[in-house]
Structures are given as structure tokens and as C-alpha cells.
Design goal:
By secondary structure, the protein is an all-alpha fold. The protein contains 3 helices and no strands. Helix content is about 80%, strand content about 0%.
Length: about 80
């Protein structure tokens, strides 16, 4: 599986995949996902198991998602 596809699939599983983000937050999310793609590539190249990589990406996205949702909640 391609790293970008793995990150996109995990992102869709979370709450952020259902919310509209401001342009600034969307750009921040895109930068974060780009960094995750690079991380996935590195972990794959080092021989890490695909399921372990997917779990790590999911954990990192949930953490980032929690932070963004808190910011979104302050604006409402």
C-alpha cells in the first residue's frame, strides 16, 4: 500500500474526515499528513510491519485530531 493512501484511509476513519476546516487548519492538516507520509516511507524502508505502521499513523492522527477539535470547539 502506498504511504499517502494509508494516511488518507486513516484520516477518513476519524472525526476530521467529516468536518469542514478553515483554510489555515486545512493547510496545517495537509502539512501534518505530508509529514506522516514521509514517516510511513521511512518506517517501511526500515522493515517495520505494515499493521504496526498503520497503528502508529492512527494514533498520531487521533492525537492531532484531538488538538484540532479543541481549537474548532473554541471558535463555536
Amino acid at each position: 500500500m502506498e504511504p499517502a493512501q494509508l494516511v488518507a484511509e486513516e484520516l477518513k476513519r476519524g472525526t476530521l474526515g467529516e468536518r469542514e476546516l478553515t483554510a489555515d487548519l486545512q493547510q496545517a492538516l495537509e502539512r501534518h499528513c505530508s509529514n506522516l507520509v514521509t514517516l510511513v516511507q521511512s518506517l517501511h524502508a526500515s522493515g517495520r510491519d505494515r499493521d504496526a505502521i498503520r497503528e502508529l499513523v492512527a494514533v498520531m492522527l487521533r492525537s492531532y485530531e484531538d488538538d484540532l477539535i479543541q481549537v474548532l470547539g473554541k471558535d463555536e
